[in-house]
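Response to reviewer comment R2.3. The reviewers asked that we include at least one raw input/output pair. We reproduce the pair for Cyclic nucleotide-binding domain-containing protein here without editing.
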Amino acid sequence: MKDFIWKSKFYFAHFSQNLSQHRFLSLCATTSFYFLFTLIPFIILIFLILSKWVSNSDIIFNELQNITSNLLPELSGKIMLQVKKFTDNSKGLGWFWFFILFWAASPLANSLRKNFLIIFNKKIKRKFYVNKFIDIVILLLVIFLFFIYIFISKYLVDLAGLFHTLIPISEKSVVLILFSSISLIMFIAIFFKIMTPEKKLPQSLLLVGAAASCIVWIFLHEMFDLIMSMSQSYGIFYGSMRNLFISLIWLFLNVAGFLFGIELIAFIFNLEVYKFRSLFLHPSKSLLKIFFHSHIIRLQKKEVLFSYDSPSTSVYFIVDGQIKTTVHGNERLFHNNQYFGELSVINNTKRLGEAVVVSDWAKIIKIPNSTFKKLLSEDLEFQNYVLRNLNKIIIN
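Raw output as returned:
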């Protein structure tokens, strides 16, 4: 039980630290602003494109109205009225207007793309027109997912009714919620797959993040009536701006639910890196026992860890015992909670010396060079820690 509590605290502390480093609330606020700014041209764009694929445009309009009301409950009526007026007065729009609508809606895609880069600690430099092209491709993919979602939602009620007929003990409403949740999770996972800059993410991890976002949205949906009842007093302070204030808060919460799933994916994907980071910066008996028990290698006296000109595949962390390194005739002794072998890994060279166990026995942990380099490139505190140790080596 103590191990479970310690592990839970570790996960919570590092996940909270991630949210703080990424300025999660600022990301949510920025994305919410861009979403509000580009919502009308984006909805018009979706309506115009999907109307060409579906014979009955009223179905598209009603589905978009439902989606908009979930995001901006107090403003959805005015937004959809504006969409209706624009589309009624702009029959037969040419390619120029489609280009204008894409350009007006692209800041939302740009904001989402940058959020993914921030959360996954990636830096990709591209030219302006390349980024704009990618943003337009993202918008097209989002519109395609909207089309698939609307197409499937038309048949969800019939599917739930069929399932209820086959299995009478199942409640139709429960089955409908289940099918809707599964389809929503699949669409979110596909969107995550398209947007993520990390191409090595396992499919199961994408589904976990999508499920987390879906659960948050379901929870918000259940809390909607409570939030709306609490908002009655806002009119005292905001007057005629009350509806806008409520819609902005609700939009912010929904965006936070979406980005929460992405944060969870990035956290789980980098979990091993966080464990090794704690091993270097905050070593403890609990950490070694819970996370690194299977990683510990026991060595006897005079065993050689590496020799001159051997490949640099790992950095070594000493759990217990003493290790002596010899580089160009200079000997150095390493003890508990110290590490060695990082210079060859950093410089991408072969070993410049050898390392031998000098105590009766020693316990070490191998840190893969990819993990060490990732920590060195992404974590400022770890960079300072390594630089201080390198400075000590130079001075001595």
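The radius of gyration is 28 Å. The chain has a mean pLDDT of 80. Further pairs are available on request from the corresponding author.
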